[in-house]
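debug: dumping io for the single-chain case to check the tokenizer round-trip. Nothing else runs in this session.
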Amino acid sequence: MASRPVHEDDSEWVQVLAAWRAVTPQLYRLAAAIKRYEGWKPGSRSWRNRNPGNLRSSPYEVMKVDGFSSFSSDHQGMVALMWDLYAKCNGRTSTRLGPKSTLEDLFAIYAPSGDDNNPDEYAEAVAGELGISVLTKLEKFLEVV
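debug: decoded output
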């Protein structure tokens, strides 16, 4: 099994992630589905970098490894993914995505074909796991409980 460096105490990140999960459970489910699609398992790039979404850039990253963000803990990486998705769903990025964009639109930006991805397959897989359509509006993931 691949090893990862020991990281700092991440109790603060655990609390932040718990709050996100409690307030926006649909967004957390989306992030968890992305984590699984990205192949999170011991030894994978996403696991080694503590980057469940294989983000290329994040304000939370501690460094870059082969062009991907790397985080100090698994929880910090998940918070970074949630923040990235939240910003995209809210229209607070330069991607032109917003609440009325669809899951299909999200993956055209999140995993573009020009980066050796298949965004349609990605959207179908995530939508299938969540039991929704690829045409589901991103505003669904912003619902607060």
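debug: round-trip ok. The longest strand covers residues 63-65.
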